[in-house]
What does this fold into?
Amino acid sequence: MKKFNPNWIGLALIIGTFGYSAVRFAHISIGLAREEDPDQGHRVIRVLHWQLEPGYREGMEMAIQAYNQLPHVIENNVQVRQLAVTERVYAQFINVHLISGTAPDIVARGMSSLVGSGASTARFFMPISEFVDRPNPYNAPEFLPDDIDPELAQFLSTAPWNETFTDGMQGGWDDVLQDYYSVPVSSWGAMRTFYNIELVAEIKEFLAEAFTQSEWPGWLQEVIHTEGVVTVDESFTRWVHSADTPDTLGRFMVFNEAVLAYAAITPGRDRLVPISASSYFSGTMVDRYILPFTYHLGDRIDFNRDSNVSGIEVAGSFQAGLWDFDEPALRDGFYDVVRWLSRYYPTGFLGLDREQAVRRFLNQQAVFIATGGWDASSLFTGAEGLFSVGVKEAPMPIDGERWHEFFAGAPSEAEHRLGVPLAIFNRSRNPDWALDFLQFLSSFTPNQMMNVRAGWVPSVVGTRPDPSMMPFLPRTEGLKPSLAVGKNWLPTVGHVYRGQFPLFQNGDIDYDTFVANIKEGFANERNGLDRMWFESFVGARDRARSNERSIALVQLEALRDGDMSDRLWSKHLNLLETNLRDLDGFSPPATFHALFDDRTFPEF
It folds into this structure.
């Protein structure tokens, strides 16, 4: 008798599962088709996003239900529904559906290059520039609250739609295509540091006790006398004996050393660390110090004097020897701060994810966590009944502290852009209703209602966030962020820096090894800085050709209409200006020859 092969069981299970999935998929597809059948008057508008933070879906749902109850929406049998997908699979999910033509009507841009900017945006999404210079119909007087300021009401009801956004709708502008392609409906606000108020008080008591001893404990002598992070004066002494959180960078470091010492000797606090961090959060606090310590390089490397430091300017000027990693402001300033901060993260923090970092803070195993307003609701809600959460800006050095001589000033947040940009899929069956919903969602009353419920900052002029979100409003004073010499400096060779920085941050390599490895990568004949120049030129040339095609389309549209509208004329000028500024794509070679008058432009 032939022996039964158990592999047949597995095959049967696979066939059965596939058959069930196929039937289920067909059933759902048929149901959706009936649900959206325009011949039956059914129209369903789906909104896809990845904002799964507590409160955001509920806030979006409130706005959706308010829209679904509008008389003209009910009359036309239109219904909006939201689809929320975790950010871990969002890119794959949206890529598949965009390519297959089955994407939802409205999609949050981001996470994927197909919903980023440039050619992919033009391929999959509908431009909305022709609508943004008209007033938003849902800001008409009948939709505004009775107690609204009359001047504000007049502005909202008559101003162009794009001017009613707090950032002028820049969060929805595509600089490459010179068109508006999305509607930013929320802002997470500026980056801030959250802290456990009760833990801060606990550590401050421990620090004050150590400070008043006739002989300081070794950790306190080390951080103050040996390392010299602060000057012990009347102001510092007053702070030590107060309940205040660390308000300067030096005091922040002293406090964090106190946390480590406290955790080492206090029962039940052995897992306590100063700062909760992960692979997701590791750069959140560090990034705040890039500009203050690299701002002085801006004048040296801003060749075109546009008050912006591009990647090609930073990397090219490094290759030309105009700056180096051994400069005190970098070695003893920024990277020294990075080294200190990394000491206060959990062991193996680069192997942790975002949820683990948040959980550590909520479990009171960390005093601080640096993140944006998108996590505010999670942190406030998770800590409720357990401890009080405070919010403050990243502390900066003051006179008399270790890093002050290299410090140029705090960065401004004036260039902050709105988030959650929602774009209309250009194969939507109901683009007019999708646009109508986005206008509703970005009007005064619904936008404020949604974002207050979500615990985010509204995007419309005149709206006010929930009081708990007031600390996240961007601060407009300070240094210009676009002059930061940091993440934007290595367009093609960025993988070299990104590969070495975590090793330095984690303490696996020292600073000299970190710099040596970067320089070795930059000097690589095949994939180093010379390759960067060539690829920058190819990219600039392709963008110039793309701009020229866009200019031709603008002119063709003007010829068809018999006149060039203000919108077309503005787009035409912007495209021409971009090409002129970039020397018709030859800006990288021009910059190269300005730096190296004795070298031939590299080709590959």
